[in-house]
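User: Hi! I have a protein structure encoded as tokens and I'd like to know what sequence might fold into it. I'm fairly new to this, so please keep things simple.
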């Protein structure tokens, strides 16, 4: 599964893949594979990204178009 939303969220903050990889304590190559859907994103990384971008995990996964986190 290709995660266009991960790329869009990253680019909206004017960040490159290396900067996001550092946030996740991984390499740029691994992060690139997450965006392209070559590797499955670990839950821990998914949660970090959702918190960082202020969106729900469901939004990142394409399960909703609502960016807001339901509390």
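Assistant: Happy to help. Inverse folding works backwards from shape to sequence: for each of the 71 positions I chose a residue that suits the local structure. Here it is:
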């Amino acid at each position: 599964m290709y995660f266009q939303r991960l790329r869009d969220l990253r680019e909206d903050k004017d960040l490159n893949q290396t900067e996001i990889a550092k946030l996740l304590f991984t390499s740029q190559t691994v992060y690139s594979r997450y965006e392209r859907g070559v590797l499955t994103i670990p839950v821990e990384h998914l949660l970090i990204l959702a918190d960082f971008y202020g969106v729900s995990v469901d939004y990142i996964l394409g399960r909703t178009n609502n960016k807001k986190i339901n509390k």
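A useful reference point when you look it over: The mean pLDDT is 93. Feel free to ask if any position seems puzzling.
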